[in-house]
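I have been asked to look over a protein record a colleague put together. Thanks in advance; the entry in question is below.
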Amino acid sequence: MRITKEPFGQLQGTNVNAYTLMNNQGFQVTALDYGCIITKIIAPDKDGNLENVVLGFDSLGEYQEHSPYFGAVIGRVAGRINKGEFELNGKSYTLPQNDGKNHLHGGNVGFDKVIWNTQIIEREDEVGLKFNYRSPDGEEGYPGTVDMKVTYLLNNENELTISYDGVSDQDTLLNVTNHTYFNLSGDLKTTITDHVLTMKSHQYLALGDDLIPTGEMVDVENTVFDFQNGREIVDGIESRHRQNRLASNGYDHPFLLDENYNKEIQLKDRTSGRSLIIETNEPCVVLYTGNMIGSNYKIRGVNASNYLGLCLETQGLPDAINHPHFPTVILKQGETYSRSTKYTFLA
């Protein structure tokens, strides 16, 4: 197992580096110290061919100009916050409205747009990266100074584990995720419409017209939101269900997980034979099927288009601070935020 490091660009005079983790089977994960962005995951198909299975770019400028959060760590709070407003300990806070009238993915300069301090981890049975960032009190409107640590670890079983740890000197909000877009066909040969997704989830959150959760938890049975026995993504894209249509013809929905660390999320591409198992201690996963990836740019030579990749964002429930019956995303002063998600790639 080994790690390599190479320059990737500069941001305001500071070097940005790309680190590649490689195991003994040739499986690779490349990540930047800018936004902890995963730029590539090189995984074998059923015939042993190694190809990239995530969306990303080869230059920093492309990430800054075009990226819809490809591969990035999202925070302080993933997802939307209604009108960019919340109340904590009797005090009202106003956040940047960077998605219409709402706050999205931590604001204008969230965790995805800063350079993280990076330490290399080299052990006999795994290699990894430990990213550290101090988010000062008031950054993007959030209270408290947060010391955040994100760790990527790769082993010889083609398992990538992402761990998130944070502490704050004041009560604040924290709900962090990774926004990688997966496409198991390899090197973007096809869209993800024929990918089969299986999830241990019997409820999802209904969304309003602005994609903010209404607060209603809806049973999935007898709908295109039922992935309990496996379903092709195309079902939701072609669906006339109002929830699919308001999400720009697809999914952009939080699903409540019935189990944790028991193969609760599985994605498969039958042509390549690749599959991905995701296990987490988070209460939900947001399925986003790339409905608004857009166009007018290329992704490593492939024209950008909707449904070219999908996200499985393990996290707390979006806009939880404004829904008292949702699991809390409040991090108390001095307490430790600790979350993890494991991605296992099979063929």
About this structure: The longest strand covers residues 336-346. The domain at 2-346 is CATH 2.70.98.10 (Beta-galactosidase; Chain A, domain 5). The radius of gyration is 19 Å.
